[in-house]
Amino acid sequence: MVSRPGGRTARTRTAVAAALQEELLEVGYAGTTIERIARRAGVAKTTLYRRWGSVGQLVVDLFHEAAAVEIPVADTGSLEGDLRALARSAVTLLLHPRSRAVFDIVVGEAVHDEAARAALTDFFAGRVANAAPIVARAVARGEIPANTDAAEVIRQLGAPYYARLYITGDPIGEADADRAAAVTAMAARAGLLA
Amino acid sequence: MVSRPGGRTARTRTAVAAALQEELLEVGYAGTTIERIARRAGVAKTTLYRRWGSVGQLVVDLFHEAAAVEIPVADTGSLEGDLRALARSAVTLLLHPRSRAVFDIVVGEAVHDEAARAALTDFFAGRVANAAPIVARAVARGEIPANTDAAEVIRQLGAPYYARLYITGDPIGEADADRAAAVTAMAARAGLLA
Question: Which residues form the HTH tetR-type domain (chains A, B) (predicted)?
């Protein structure tokens, strides 16, 4: 499929993505259908069926795109400060109903659907690539060992709030972001994430 | 429902649980039906429909029961040693195809089903209650601050390997259990889990 930036395909995608998020918030995943999304987006439902086939594939495809987005990472002068800023952004995103609705579906589908699993894995590979400069700067400052694994640092940072949301079912907030940053920075300094 | 230990109800449950796990491994969640479980367990399908209604509710109910099981926790003489033993048991369980199949379903359902969410939350409340003596012993030895939160310690311990499995999609193994124990023990000693 050829997609020109700002062209008709891009406009369709944007309209469909917005309609999908509104439907998910209004009627939930079980109630969301291709027909309803098409009507709300003002797009022919045959276009949606041809391109995505199902609501699940549509969610996964749009989520996949999110993996490629670069998010500016703060340069606070310390590893813990940088990780705290990153964790707070992630928690804020997960507390936002629209992004949370999409995330919930992808996590739920990923246990039995390969496309959803791949979208989630790619999303985190994107997050790691995006945040790798944080680790490189801390190494350059001599704060942490040179053989520190950036992927391990980012995984360790995110694990507590993702596990609270999707495994233990506990609430998340800024305190969880700050604690995750403190624990991860300490573990990295001690060489446990090498 | 009246259930006598060793009685007909208990035998039915055991047979149904075994049949369910075998079906999940053979044909996956999508292929598992009440009819197939009933045939394999040698139980009338009307009994299963009356008691559980659907495969999802059956999985959730059996998982709920697992929360109440007490698992002996090792007393190695150090917080890190005790946490390492606990984390290794958890990783071994998650690597076992039968328990993993059930866990996958409950995690997947929990994002949109209240009964599955409650089963998962109760499971971890059970794990915390079960492991609380580890934290109490470490406090008594003067290894960690008296105001350390046992629930926070157990959540911090489990977060990395659950997040690898269900969020980032990375493999898990003994090294992940050992790293989680080292990071959690260090964080607890520093008073970050109070």
Answer: 10-70
Q: Would the CB atoms of A121 and B162 count as touching at under 8 Å?
A: no
Give mean pLDDT, residues A10-17. 88
Tell me which DSSP letter residue A78 carries.
Answer: S
User: For A166, which DSSP code?
Assistant: I
Q: How confident is the model at residue A78 (pLDDT cuts 50, 70, 90)?
A: very high
Q: Is the pLDDT of residue B115 over 90?
A: no
Two domains, one topology: A8-53 and A66-189: no
* The pLDDT of residue A4: 52
Out of B104, B158, B182, the one facing A163 most closely (by C-beta) is B158
Per-residue pLDDT averaged across B14-28, rounded? 88
Mean per-residue pLDDT, A44-61: 90
Among residues 78-107 of chain A, which lie with CB inside 8 Å of chain B? 104-105, 107
Please provide the distance, in angstroms rounded to a whole number, between the alpha carbons at the two ends of chain A: 42
- Tell me the nearest-neighbour CA distance from A39 into chain B, angstroms: 25
Q: Using N-to-C axis directions, what is the helix angle for B114-140 and B150-163, rounded to 10°? A: 120
pLDDT in tens, B43-55: 999 999 999 888 8
> Into which CATH architecture does domain B73-189 fall?
Orthogonal Bundle (1.10)
A16: part of which helix (H) or strand (E)? helix A8-31
Output the pLDDT for position B5.
54
| Cα gap A48→B68, rounded to integer Å | 47
A122 touches chain B (CB under 8 A): no
Amino acid of residue B63? F
For residue B167, name the pLDDT band (cuts at 50, 70, 90).
Answer: very high
Instruction: Say whether pLDDT at A18 is over 70.
Output: yes
Q: Which residues of A touch B186 (CB under 8 A)?
A: 186-187, 190, 192
Structure-derived torsion over alpha carbons of residues A70, A149, A122, B114, reported in degrees to the nearest 10: -100
ipTM: 0.88
How is residue A186 written in tokens?
Answer: 């300490």
Q: Which residue among B110, B124, B168 sits closest to A155, beta carbon to beta carbon?
A: B168
| B8's tokens | 């007909």
HSE at residue B115, side-chain half, CA atoms within 13 A, is 14
The reply to whether residue A120 touches residue B169, judged by beta carbons under 8 angstroms, is yes
Fold of A8-53: Arc Repressor Mutant, subunit A (1.10.10)
